[in-house]
Target: SAM-dependent methyltransferase
Amino acid sequence: MFSPYGPTLRELAVQALSSVERGYDLLAPKFDHTPFRTPDVVLDSVAEALAPMGPFAHGLDLCCGTGAGLDVLRAVCGQSVTGLDFSAGMLAVGRDRARSAGPPRTAWVRGDARALPFGPAFDLVVSFGAFGHFLPRELPGLFAQVRSVLRPGGRFVFPIGAPPRPDSPLYWALSGFDTVMRVRNAVRRPQFVMYYRTFRFGDVLRELGRAGFSVEHRALPALGRRPDGSPRCRLIVATG
Model:
């Protein structure tokens, strides 16, 4: 799962016993060599789906990490792209990674997605792989924050994978991980919030609607289908 340039087991353990912010500061130099980085096939599929929805002028990558999602925004936004994350380490790696990137202009902002430091400045907000860091009770506030930074008619777009079947090894691996994290967070502070099975499709649609979004979803064909014919991954398109 990890390249030779990725973190050691000890480094991952130290990260998991830290706060979320400190953990990602520690992981940042090696993050792009882990399976936690969103795969290129997902990024490319989202960029392809976004192209006919544009053109967009200003885009925001919410919880941008080292900036893989900013490449998606650069492909579809004509004037500016912004990455927001609360890990200074991840932002520093992202800035270094993007030094040779061309237009549009890029900004890197340290901040909390639950209290966005922007007005209604964006036509498009995307996010990749970050929602496990938010507890279900935080979704209403999170989605309200996103809507507040979108211009009228702006879009909040992100992929969401189909949940693994209960008879699959992945289901039990993710369930086991979530259980371990709950135990860890019950006995140790600060918490490290990262769960794989709490961001559920039905809950997401409901809370986006309550936040005032008009919501549609579509399959991402490049990511394939499950044996029952359902998509392995869908793209959520929420319009403000």
In short: The chain has a mean pLDDT of 91. The CA atoms of residues 177 and 228 lie 26 Å apart. The helical segments are 9-16, 20-27, 40-50, 68-76, 88-97, 139-149, 169-187, 201-210.
